[in-house]
Write a structure and sequence with these properties.
The protein is of the alpha/beta class and 259 residues long.
Length: 259
């Protein structure tokens, strides 16, 4: 075999390796994109009715009841990569119960940079300040959204606010145990992204009076209406049952009022 033939064969092998890697990358990205794609959300949940106005903004999706039930409202921060529409089945019934719901969209869907996460915290604070008519806020979030909700609590801007952290191991580094705000932690036993043991490992970082809601058989992906995330466990209960438990935790925090 000549040297030229050897070089040609090596070049051919490298070319096929690059093509295989490119194909793998394309398939992986497509699979990941599909796994967080909104699925199974009835169109009617995203339409305004005489009872609830649906407002699609650039930074938030809003469900606004025409006859608010008191002066409590919910801010819900989306999970990483998840569109707010995926949370409509979970949250639209909260608005149907008379509570305004603001679903915050993450910058670039994933809030990849610290500056993006800081922007979400600031947006939440500004939203609370802009609605003087609300006397009790519940700030909640799923996955990364739950971590950002914990950062809102840490920021100190929490007038008459309660916090519901869903499917997240946060807070991890921040000690929130001395805060006087009510906290609820919702977690699922089959969650492969935020496993129950890692959730409970940070229990000391939350106030002693934190309410803990365990969803037996639930997983990470079923908190919203989207595909099955990589590394997540397999749920043994329905998506509807898991979200009903989660929704009741949110409603309970709304009904209880301020600290």
């Amino acid at each position: 075999m000549t040297e030229a033939t050897t070089r040609s064969r090596a070049h051919s092998i490298r070319r096929w390796v690059r093509r295989a890697f490119l194909l793998w990358a394309v398939i992986s990205i497509a699979w990941l994109a599909n796994s967080v794609r909104t699925q199974g959300v009835p169109d009617g949940l995203l339409r305004s009715t005489q009872d609830v106005s649906v407002v699609e903004g650039s930074t938030a999706l809003e469900f606004l009841p025409t006859r608010p039930n008191g002066k409590a409202a919910l801010i819900f921060i989306s999970g990483s990569g998840i569109h707010p529409h995926a949370y409509a089945p979970l949250l639209r019934p909260v608005a149907d119960s008379g509570y305004s719901v603001f679903v915050i969209k993450l910058p670039y869907r994933f809030a990849p940079l610290k500056s993006h996460k800081d922007a979400v915290v600031e947006q939440t604070r500004q939203l609370m300040a802009a609605h003087a008519e609300v006397s009790h806020w519940v700030v909640a979030g799923h996955s990364l959204g739950g971590a950002l909700a914990a950062r809102v609590a840490q920021s100190g801007h929490r007038p008459n606010a309660a916090f519901v952290l869903i499917g997240t191991t946060h807070p991890k580094d921040a000690d929130l145990s001395r805060l006087d705000a009510p906290f609820t932690k919702v977690y699922a036993t089959e969650d492969g992204i935020a496993p129950a043991d890692r959730v409970m490992a940070t229990k000391r970082l939350l106030p002693e009076q934190t309410r803990w809601v365990e969803i037996t058989g639930g997983n990470h992906s079923q908190f919203g209406h989207y595909g099955h995330q990589l590394f997540d466990g397999n749920a043994t209960i329905t998506r509807e049952a898991q979200q009903a438990i989660t929704r009741e935790a949110l409603l309970d925090a709304l009904r209880k009022g301020g600290p």
